[in-house]
């Protein structure tokens, strides 16, 4: 179906549907140089996006950026670095730190079981 019919079925304007397409919130067009035809898959994708926007109170642009973070490693890394800097993301624990803590815990447990204090 054409964009006008698809927009009517989705309860939005053709302009809003084109905006969502420009943001990458629609499945890619099949075939090089092909005009978009809206089928059930495209309608379902837009409906799902609208539902997510309402559920999480985000704009189409915010949802599109979230998808970009999931699919573009450079963007994901930049957002992660910001999250670390502002304290919204915790740095991953290093494997050696984990192993050190595990060894110290085992020593404390062994010392407690034998009644001796652990050496530091």
Automatic annotation (TrEMBL):
Name of the protein: MerR HTH family regulatory protein
MF-aspect GO terms: DNA binding
UniProt-listed CDD domains: HTH_MerR-SF
Record SMART domains: HTH_MERR (SM00422)
The organism's taxonomic lineage, starting at the top: Bacteria, Bacillati, Actinomycetota, Actinomycetes, Streptosporangiales
Gene Ontology biological process: regulation of DNA-templated transcription
Pfam family, one: MerR
Xref: InterPro entries: DNA-bd_dom_put_sf (IPR009061), MerR-type_HTH_dom (IPR000551)
Chain segments annotated as coiled-coil in the UniProt record: none
Domain HTH merR-type residues, every copy: 1-67
Gene3D superfamilies assigned to the protein according to its UniProt record, in alphabetical order: 1.10.1660.10
């Amino acid at each position: 179906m054409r964009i006008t019919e698809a927009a009517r079925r989705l309860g939005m304007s053709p302009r809003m549907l084109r905006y969502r397409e420009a943001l990458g919130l629609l499945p890619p067009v099949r075939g090089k140089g092909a005009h978009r035809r809206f089928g059930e898959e495209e309608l379902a994708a837009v409906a799902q996006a609208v539902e997510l926007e309402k559920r999480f109170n985000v704009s189409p642009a915010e949802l599109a950026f979230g998808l970009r973070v999931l699919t573009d490693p450079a963007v994901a890394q930049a957002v992660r670095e910001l999250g670390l800097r502002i304290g919204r993301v915790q740095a991953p624990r290093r494997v050696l730190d984990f192993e050190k803590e595990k060894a110290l815990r085992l020593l404390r447990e062994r010392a407690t079981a034998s009644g001796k204090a652990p050496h530091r």
